[in-house]
Each structure stands twice: as structure tokens, then as C-alpha cells.
Write a structure and sequence with these properties.
By secondary structure, this protein is α/β, with parallel strands linked by helices. It contains four helices and six strands. The chain has a six-stranded mixed sheet with strand order 1-2-3-4-6-5, with helices on one face. The longest helix has 19 residues. It starts with a helix and ends with a strand.
Length: 174
């Protein structure tokens, strides 16, 4: 995950300076620019396939959450959202918010979808991609990060075809 995160940071730094993400709001002081880079990359990929991308993030540089774990959580969350929203024929969108509040890092990602997500017999969401043996690890990684920080991954679907994934990671005391 660390290498992938590094690649995204490098990609975000060399992106076309004329490409402007009007709905991307990131506060200063982000952890090694990780969150900023991940959001810039997601905004770029969403724009390329016509997805409206609205994101805000306010995360301090000193947040004591592993950069690799933050990458695993955010990258998988946004990758899944982009994949689902890209299948929509109309009004595809992603709304993302991350902020520190009362000792927690609250993260919420909503996206449009058209195809009902598949679930196994236990109600766990499963990958719809070919080559199942090399896919389907994203939700497991996100769950593991949430559990490590004394949280859970809350996933639900609204009647308006909005898929929501959210968590509130307890920020460890320094």
C-alpha cells in the first residue's frame, strides 16, 4: 500500500496544472499530503469518466493514524465509489467528507449506483469483478482499519440509489 500511495502522491504532483477541481476542498496541514493526493487522484479519475466529485477534508498533519492505513481506507473507499458511479448513465456522483471531530476521524463516502451490489449468504458485500481471486480485498482492508481504530465500517443503501460507506476512527492519544 505504501508504494501505491507514493505513486499517487507523485501523480498528483505532476498533474496538468490547468486541470481544476472546482468541488475539491482540502484544508492545509494534511498528513504528508496523503489525503490531498488521494483526493486529487480520485477527482481526476472521476472527471475523466464524467462523475461529479465533491470532496472536503480537514485532517491535521499530526494525526496519529498510520499513513498506510489511511491510504488503504481512503483509496479502497474511493476506488469502489468511482467504479460504481461510472456505471451510472445519468447523474453519477461521489460525495466525500473527512474531518476530525471530538477525538475521531469521521469519514463518509456516498456515490450513485445503478447495479445493486452483490452480497454473500452472510450479507457481506462481494466483488463483481472477474478474477475473484485477485479482487475483493478492499472492504476487508477497510474493515480491518476501522476495527484497529475501535470503529466499524457502516455500509448502507438509500432508496435513491445512493451507496454510503462511513466510519469514525478513534484517534489514538499521543
Amino acid at each position: 500500500i505504501g508504494f501505491i500511495c507514493y505513486q499517487i502522491i507523485c501523480h498528483a504532483q505532476v498533474m496538468d496544472e490547468h486541470y481544476y477541481f472546482k468541488n475539491l476542498s482540502v484544508q492545509n496541514g494534511l498528513s504528508q499530503n496523503t489525503v490531498n493526493a488521494i483526493l486529487q487522484d480520485a477527482a481526476y479519475r472521476a472527471a475523466r469518466v464524467g462523475i461529479s466529485f465533491d470532496a472536503t477534508a480537514s485532517v491535521s498533519a499530526e494525526i496519529p493514524i498510520s499513513e498506510n492505513e489511511l491510504c488503504a481506507l481512503l483509496m479502497n473507499m474511493l476506488d469502489n465509489a468511482i467504479e460504481a458511479a461510472s456505471r451510472c448513465t445519468e447523474k453519477s456522483f461521489i460525495r466525500f467528507k473527512a474531518e476530525e471531530r471530538n477525538g475521531f476521524l469521521a469519514v463518509k463516502c456516498e456515490n450513485s449506483f445503478i447495479e445493486e451490489p452483490k452480497q454473500d449468504k452472510n450479507g457481506q458485500y462481494i466483488s463483481t469483478k472477474d478474477e475473484k481471486e485477485s479482487h475483493g480485498f478492499g472492504l476487508k482492508l477497510m474493515n480491518a482499519v476501522a476495527e484497529k481504530y475501535h470503529s466499524m465500517l457502516d455500509i448502507f443503501i438509500s432508496d435513491e440509489n445512493v451507496f454510503t460507506v462511513q466510519t469514525a476512527l478513534r484517534i489514538p492519544k499521543k
